[in-house]
Amino acid sequence: MLVALLAIAACGTGTGSATPPSATPFAASSTPATVAPSAGLSGTLTIYAGRSEELVGPLMERFRTQTGLDVKVNYAGTTDLAATILEEGEASPADVFFAQDAGALGAVAAEGRLAQLPAETLGKVDGRFASDDGQWIGVSGRARVVVYDTRTVAEADLPASIDGFTDPAWKGRIGWAPTNASLQSFVTAYRVLKGDAAAKAWLEGIQANEPKVYEGNDAILAAVAAGEVEVGFTNHYYLMRQLIEQGDEFPVRNFFFPGGDAGSLVNVAGVGILATAPNPVAAQAFVDFLLTDESQTYFATETNEYPLIDGIAADDSLPALTDIESPDIDLSDLSDLGGTLRIMQEAGVL
Amino acid sequence: MSVDARPRLPLRPFSRAARADAADTSRRAPWPLVGAGLFIAFLALLPLAYLVIRALGSESDVVGFLLRPRTVGAVAATLALGALVGAGTVALGVPIAWLTTRTDLPGKRAWAVLTLVPLALPSYVVGFAFLAFFGPRGSLQGLLAPLGVERLPSIGGLFGAVLVLTLVSFPYVALATRAALLRLDPAVEESARLLGDRRMTVFRRVTLPVLVPAIAAGALLAVLYALSDFGAVSLLQFDSLSRAIYMQYGASFDRSLAAALALVLVGLTVAITWGEARLRARAGTYAASTRRRPTVVRLGRWRWPSLAFLTLVVGLALVVPVGTVGWWLVRGLAQGEPLRLVIDVALDTFMVGAVAAVLAVILSVPVALLAARYRSRRSHFVESAAYAGYALPGIVVALAMVFLATRTLPVLYQTLALLVAVYAVRFMPQALGGLRSSLGTAGPRLEEAGRTLGDGPVRAFAMLTVPYLRPAIVGGAALVFLTVVKELPLALLLAPIGFETLATEIWDAASSGFYARAAGPASLLLLVSIGTVALLLRSEDRAR
After folding, report:
1. Across the interface, do A9 and B341 touch by the CB < 8 Å criterion?
2. Could you give all domains of chain B from N- to C-terminal order, each with its CATH number?
3. Which domain does A224 fall in, by range?
4. CB within 8 Å: A244 and B335
5. Among A298, B390, B436, B440, which lies 20 to 30 A Cα-Cα from A257?
6. If contacts are CB pairs under 8 Å, which of residues 180-209 in chain B contact chain A?
7. Could you write out the DSSP letters of every residue in B493-529?
């Protein structure tokens, strides 16, 4: 049996290198495109990536071959990396912080650890996907959805608004992750749209339905699949990956609220350049690289997210980004986040 | 060893003479030993210094925060979790150790390996597997559906957390108890039998008391592991202190409130360690002199219940999680996912684990010597310091080292040297317990004999005592190794950029929902662990 394993290993990943297999789409498209006249780029670029290597590793590899830079990537959880950057202080070796969510970028910016981005860069995406004071920019979008167990819930039974889940009919059937950054951003959006009192009432309504609490979106999805809960509040792309791995019989589907409901807020994964970046020129080139047509197409096709620049389409199965009317709030605004956390605590959720 | 020739049990296998022999309080520890012990205590206390700096520097109302009902609830929940995991690991570990060492159980060696391997399974993998298998609509419900079972009760909360953490940590108790049983002088039990006691009575009144220090040391490791765990409690939604600490980082990036909570956890750890030390002191030490195999207990009609018990434990602790990982693999391959066997990452992981294990054993020697031979307030301080930060969640230790290294030794920051050193200091208690009890039974007499023959103290220790300690050294090193290879937060944050371990590979894939891609490195982790446990048991044989 060991021989068989070794044989598979030999013809499988071969060198056993850490490069994920999904590197192929780039290997195929050989022409180094849009970015990098690569003038003046040299040395090492250190990226702290709060996103998985499975997802963004091929992009890093692409940037490395295009620029010839020595690109070093520290992969870990977004929250852990934000805390690490704060503890490192001025001594941080990082040039770029590539975060899973805007709140972590905001926390790092609030302690003065991020540099100002040029207006030219900021102009590439819609204003609602960058920080108000220009210290970070979104590079890919993720919509909030409700995932539901197709074995027990019909799509027609789902409410047309996130408010519908405060109905006692949903008691004991909901899974959510109140500590998760994207849920908190959603609550902030709800406050902006409908006011603090309404947000608190909604939280209390959900709490009264005794939802099960999970750590993150993937745990919620696993719980819905296992039948622990029947619906869960998550981001849209977790399910898409399970469908790729497990096929269409996976008994869970996404539900997008119609008509600009707060329940369909669009969050972003984004980047910021550290104020102490040892190689700010290379850092800027990397940020611009993520906003090229090619990288944005990668986000659309490989990570199942929304591209954020004009002219690149999202996956066919998703509603268009322009049809999701999320409010224009600064997704990283920590004073807003602080208000959200306070309301969540008052409602007994946190 | 001498046994009082009393006509009736209880025997007193730990005579006062033997106790005084092992720990002579009148002797003063040599200064190099004290210096080494204090230095190790200093290293172990570094993360605590960071926590104090952070908690004192807080702008929030720390005291008010700690007195919130939620925080008090988390402390109570953590104590309940610790108590139940402690009881559970003893209930599983002691019978397993006895069955696999002293009886005519069929396939003893295989059962011994299979019941130690769960130690190498990351709690987040086991938690995920349990959720997928035992969840209300998990695989088990699927199997039972033809019988009309629509859904199973939820396994979340205290029950699920205790179950998973007991199943990944009972090997601590099994291994420590096993070592003690193998050291035990069969003459004691034989005498009791000759005096007419039934087997169960012998076990309860003679064997068990001698095993208490080992059982307590193993249970201590299991309980502190449960306190530090984040993987299982988060998946099974149980609000322990370590989950509350993670929530502080995640919800508000508030490092000072997280530090305050972590200090509460340190307080609990010190209290639990103190309790264990009291238990151990009351049991005293026990000196063995013979090295021969004890008589094999014939299980007779108890053979089948024993096999059923072991099958159940191995089924839950090993087959369910391994089967789930295997299922991810098969399902992924069927959907066209490639099999990822990252051999080079496995070698790197093995290397880090091995170096950290050796270093941890070396560090534990002075601490164990002080604790076993020179009982004093200072020795007790060194020993407590070694355990104090053991129950801290990995992220807390990682951030502490980030803070300290960037400010004091930036050259070492994000190097393998620092990572390995932090592992060694953090997991040293795993090597400490076994070494301390072995030293307790070895006593200094052997070395004194050597010294009268002209050896220096170091040579006498190396030539005469170390061979006797061999099983404890190998066992301790194996525990540290198995813990390091599955460790995650430190590997993610302190390793050199780009350095990967099997645990970080599993995490990277699984955290974005690619379970099939996580299965390759998970299988390798399992293979490495089984190999290590098999080696461990072989060395046990050679020692006898």
Report:
1. yes
2. 29-54+337-544 (1.10.3720.10), 60-116+156-287+301-319 (1.10.3720.10)
3. 142-265+341-346
4. yes
5. A298
6. none
7. HHSPTT---HHHHHHHHHHTT-HHHHHHHHHHHHHHH
